[in-house]
Design goal:
- It is an enzyme of class 3 (hydrolase).
- With about 775 residues, this protein is of the alpha+beta class.
- It has 4 domains: about 20-150, Immunoglobulin-like (Sandwich), CATH 2.60.40.290; about 150-250, Immunoglobulins (Immunoglobulin-like); about 255-350, Sandwich (Immunoglobulin-like), CATH 2.60.40; about 370-775, Alpha-Beta Barrel (TIM Barrel).
- It contains 13 helices and 40 strands.
- Helix 7 crosses helix 8.
């Protein structure tokens, strides 16, 4: 991943600018304040480096390098050299090997950021000391270590599966992941149910329109049933497969519904299919499921007979398909019921790994290459372009963010979600990874029954009921696990952030009826999710554990281990089912409050933590909170290997931080004048005004002995936290209303702190917020 160490707290003094416009124009690079870029002098001319000084505090400064592959082929590494004219002396560096000989500085790539595709970038930085003046180097040279043929592009299909009713049509779209050198023809072939046909049978993509989705229409005849696999192929591109299932027309009679229509199951493991009816039957219906042809190593071991009533017809019931230890190949299963048209689904048994198997490592971020979500990159690039080709904004798209699976539809993507499906995301990532440097993908599992029981903006789609739990398991977790299983031996690592805000609500909000009702479904659902995902060797589970402003009070922290132990100990693998925890997910609490380090310090006769902003919560920041929570969990039985991620995507609170204490005789004034957290109230959480992007994604930012494993950007900066009820719509959360208030439970009332003048639904792009986050980033972008 892109790593950047945190320099010591300091003032942002000035940007040092050397503009070499002609050279940059020749390279097609934008010139930004504070940057000097010089093209590579190596024969291949395939990389360039931009030098900037984002921070200078008079006796020292931070130097930043942005290395870009400006050639047409991927490179395997890079070396940057430049020479200072003054007394600049290297102190420490990150994201590369920094050395200094006399006045000449040499930087070589780290193991994780040397391989760059054409157009890709990496960053590195270092702290220096100096006396006198701090002039930028006159030139910077980037030399590539070598070049490699870029991996083949892929054909992206959205969605990857669809149902088409007899006599009607459905659609999917195709696009290319990278530009062809000439017009590329993609052909579409079909196998399986002949009642489904695709039109057109081929599409042409040009170097200019390669990424624009083109539509393929699937037409169903009046009598066919079953599944058709459409395969889209093109020269030099990884093929895409689309599974379409022809569904009988109801005409008042229910249809049997099956999800997913096909899946791959590894030897010795199980898969799950969800069965439901399209409409209410007039009386109870008994549905039978059986293997009717193909590989006998696959069998129905649970759910062979299901009963649907007029009340529960729409709730999917699970069927378990078990793979033996030696079988191989595909099998067809038939779902049937008296008076209804039968449907089929397919399963393929895959061999278990016997050599070169995926190893579950202690730190998934070490030695891995971050996968960039193309959906987020596209949003960032569009905004940067709209804002005059802002280099700072464009830089955000070069850092990894998590892929949020916050509804069932997000798994397959397409349609109303407008997202790339999980299958395609992992296909893209696998193509970018190697055995030596696997791709790292971050996903957020976030759709529990009764989700976010104490909030409104992020309430989920599944009710907190027994039927909802079944839906969560069979229609949400099982399809995710099925897709992930297909990539168990691929060169990727998958970090799964498990259900933000769920278990913290179990710890503190049992007085809320919605949370009390949801608690058993939270606990059972998360245990189920951990079991399914931990069974996949390259998946790493991190449980959300709120943040310092929630569970930081001693009474809340002491009650946390029991709740988390209940969930984890009920899994098949126990503590091994999780790899750690994550704090500050989609929140704003600073990683460190640099000047407020002693909660018991007396100011005006009162301890600092007695200030209204902290209300006797002694954990002022995430580093303090995570360290204390780590020790608390270890004391309660959790292994010391279970470390913490911190979401730093929006907790920077820049563009500057105070460096010296402002004295005050009143504790509230003292805290207000010296904290970097600009919220009116620590409980404010929705689209916070004056927030900024925080530390860049970093592996082991505080060293291997720290309980902090990595800084990550779980929440994509620029995506809204939620909207609020207005005269034009009733949905949303009043806590997102800039004119609204939050209460602290002790009679205190505070502004929500939300950005005024906007009303953007949760998850949608919020241009004004993105611009603000970039402007207030710390360290600066």
């Amino acid at each position: 991943m892109r790593l950047r160490a945190q320099p010591a707290t300091r003032r942002l003094c000035r940007m040092i600018t050397v503009v070499l416009a002609a050279l940059l124009a020749a390279l097609g690079l934008a010139v930004a304040s504070g940057a000097v870029a010089v093209p590579a002098v190596a024969a291949t001319s395939s990389c360039a480096a931009a030098y900037s000084v984002p921070n200078d505090w008079g006796s020292g400064f931070t130097a930043s390098l942005a290395v870009t592959n400006n050639g047409t082929a991927a490179i395997t590494g890079w070396t940057v050299t430049y020479t200072y004219a003054g007394t600049q002396t290297l102190s420490s560096g990150w994201n590369g090997t920094w050395t200094q000989s006399g006045k000449t500085v040499t930087v070589t790539n780290a193991s994780y950021n040397g391989a760059l595709a054409a157009g890709a970038s990496a960053s590195a930085g270092a702290n220096f000391n100096y006396t006198g003046t701090n002039a930028a180097p006159a030139s910077v040279t980037c030399t590539p270590a070598g070049s490699v043929t870029p991996p083949p592009g892929s054909i992206n299909a959205t969605p990857a599966s669809l149902n088409v009713t007899q006599g009607s049509t459905g659609t999917f779209t195709l696009a290319l992941s990278s530009a062809p050198t000439a017009n590329e023809t993609v052909s579409i072939a079909a196998s399986g149910n002949t009642g489904l046909t695709a039109s057109p049978a081929s599409l042409t993509f040009t170097p200019a329109n390669f990424s624009a989705p083109q539509t393929v229409t699937v037409t169903a005849n009046a009598t066919g049933t079953g599944t058709t696999t459409f395969t889209a192929t093109g020269s030099g591109y990884t093929a895409a497969t689309i599974t379409a299932t022809e569904v009988p027309s109801s005409n008042g009679t229910p249809s049997l519904m099956v999800t997913p229509a096909s899946q791959t199951i590894t030897q010795g493991t199980t898969g799950t299919v969800g069965i439901s009816l399209s409409s209410a039957p007039s009386s109870n219906v008994t549905v039978s499921v059986a293997r009717t042809s193909g590989n006998t190593g696959l069998s129905v071991t649970a759910g062979s007979s299901l009963t649907f009533t007029p009340a529960n017809f729409a709730t999917a019931q699970s069927v378990t398909i078990t793979a033996d230890s030696a079988g191989s190949g595909a099998a067809t299963f038939t779902v049937s019921a008296s008076g209804l048209t039968s449907v089929t689904f397919a399963a393929t048994e895959a061999a278990a790994c016997t050599s070169n198997c995926t190893t579950h490592v202690a730190d998934p971020y070490t030695g891995a290459k971050p996968y960039l979500n193309p959906d987020f990159v596209k949003e960032v690039q569009a905004q940067a372009s709209a804002d005059g080709n802002s280099a700072a904004e464009a830089a955000v798209g070069t850092y990894q963010t998590a892929i949020w699976l916050d509804q069932i539809a997000a798994i397959n993507g397409g349609g109303t979600t407008g997202r790339t499906g999980l299958q395609q995301q992992l296909t893209n990532a696998a193509a970018q990874g190697t055995t030596a440097i696997p791709s790292l993908v971050e996903i957020v599992v976030y759709d529990l029954p009764g989700r976010d029981c104490a909030a409104l903006a992020s309430n989920g789609e599944i009710p907190a009921t027994a039927a909802g739990l079944t839906e969560y398991e069979s229609q949400y977790i099982d399809p995710i696990a099925s897709i992930l299983s297909q990539f168990a031996s691929s060169p990727i690592r998958i970090v799964a952030i498990i259900e933000p805000d769920s278990l913290p609500n179990v710890v503190t909000n049992q007085s809320k009826s919605a949370c009390a009702t949801a608690t058993p479904y939270y606990e059972t659902g998360i245990t189920y999710a951990l079991n399914k995902l931990h069974a996949i060797p390259n998946v790493y589970n991190y449980l959300d554990i709120a943040h310092s402003a929630w569970l930081g009070w001693p009474s809340n922290m002491s009650g946390t281990p029991a709740v988390y132990n209940t969930v984890v100990k009920n899994t098949t693998a126990g503590y091994a089912s999780i790899d750690g925890f994550i704090s500050d997910t989609a929140n704003y609490t600073p990683t460190q409050e640099p000047l407020l380090t002693n909660p018991t310090l007396s100011v005006g006769g009162q301890p600092v933590d007695s200030a209204t902003f902290y209300q006797y919560n002694p954990t002022f920041d995430e580093l303090t909170y995570d360290t204390q929570m780590y020790n608390t969990l270890v004391s309660a039985g959790f292994p010391s290997s279970k470390k913490f991620l911190i979401d730093t995507s929006r907790n920077g609170w820049g563009p500057t931080h105070p460096t010296t204490i402002t004295a005050a005789s009143d504790v509230n004034t003292y805290v207000t004048d010296n904290k970097i957290d600009k919220r009116p109230f620590r409980g404010d959480w929705c689209n916070q005004n004056n927030a900024g992007i925080g530390a860049r994604p970093t592996d082991q930012p505080l060293g291997g002995s720290s309980p902090i494993l990595a800084y990550v950007w779980t929440k994509p900066p620029g995506e809204s936290d939620g909207d609020y009820p207005t005269s034009t719509h009733s949905h949303g959360d009043p806590h997102c209303d800039p004119s609204g208030t939050n209460t602290d439970g002790n009679g205190g009332t505070y502004s929500t702190g939300s950005i005024p003048g906007f009303d953007v639904p949760a998850g949608q792009w919020y241009a004004a917020e993105f611009q603000m986050l970039v402007k207030n980033a710390f360290p600066a972008l």
